[in-house]
Amino acid sequence: MVESLIDINQLTVEEIDELIKKAEDIIANPEKYAHKCEGKKLATLFYEPSTRTRLSFEAAMYELGGNVLGFQSAKNSSASKGESVSDTVRVVSGYADIIAMRHPKEGAPLVAAMKSLVPIINAGDGGHNHPTQTLADMLTIYRKKGGFENLTIGMCGDLKFGRTVHSLTNAMSRYEGNKFVFISPDELKIPDYIKTDVLDRKGVEYEETRSLEESIPDLDILYMTRVQQERFFNEADYLRLRDTYILNEQKLKNAKKDMIIMHPLPRVNEISVEVDDDPRACYFDQTLNGKYIRMALILKLLGIN
Ligand code: NCD
């Protein structure tokens, strides 16, 4: 099997450090990288909606001098005729040097990686994982906080279906001294497997609460998330839960002066627009960092220095 990125745990902490350093170098010296991927093609196979992830992958490949092909929805691909992910990937791996795939089914990119002749990057699989969002989040944390240790990290909102939360928890629990505060309604709590297989196994400290107001003063990072409407079986449940948390300036009064406010975006109502002007808000930095870290990742998986 060629080297793919399906789960953030496939990267060692040293490899994450290298990717961060590479992204920093790309930010500082973009001209050095402008031709690195000349003659190479990235395919973006998106079976689910996306703005940032797909466009930042595409922008990343263009800024490396490469080209892009792909589809933006299952409807526009032969999936709508019943083609399997395995067959599609076998075909596309003859057309492209690397593939970024988003799919509503958990595990689809892993199946793809088993069939593909070229590296597969998981760009989000159902309510499971989203490793490249985690890399974008980590570049942001690194640039704002200077490192990954001794942080109290609040995750707020849909912790059950929010795949970015699962991958980020996995990654940040590998560093010393971090503590997690999981803030959610009972129906959207962090999955048990994250608690037992990730946090308990590593002896990481965490607490679960419903109250954003009570926990906000302790946090170094507040990671807000959207309630994932598309994963609900029942519209009434979604409508009841969607506005459980709305972060506004009033609630931020009790937060640390250097707490950072993160969100993978898209936001719906969970952060009021007034917060955008708060110097602690860094969700738009995350989107830009996503492009740079994806450039670094494409280079790594293609074996280009
Ligand atoms: C996230 C996703 O797709 O999981 N978006 C993204 O990639 N930036 C978060 C979300 O959709 O809520």
Would you give an account of this structure?
- The chain is globular, with a radius of gyration of 19 Å.
- Strand 3 (98-103), helix 5 (108-115) and strand 4 form a beta-alpha-beta unit.
- It is 39% helix and 15% strand.
- The model has no long low-confidence stretch (mean pLDDT 97).
- The chain has a 5-stranded parallel sheet with strand order 7-6-5-8-9, with helices on one face. The chain has a 4-stranded parallel sheet with strand order 2-1-3-4, sandwiched between helices.
- The protein is of the alpha/beta class.
- Helix 1 (13-28) packs across helix 12 and helix 3 packs across helix 12 (283-302).
- The structure holds N-carbamoyl-L-aspartate.
The main pleated sheet reads as: 5 strands, parallel
Structural class: alpha/beta
Please tell me how large the radius of gyration is. Answer: 19 Å
What sequence of helices (H) and strands (E) makes up the elements? HHEHEHEHEHEHEHEHEHHEH
Bound molecules: N-carbamoyl-L-aspartate
Inertia-based shape = globular
Number of strands: 9
Main sheet: which strands, in order across? 7-6-5-8-9
Compute the number of helices.
12
Share in helix: 25-40%
Low-pLDDT residue spans? none
Q: CA-to-CA gap between the ends?
A: 21 Å
| Residues in β-strands, percent | 5-15%
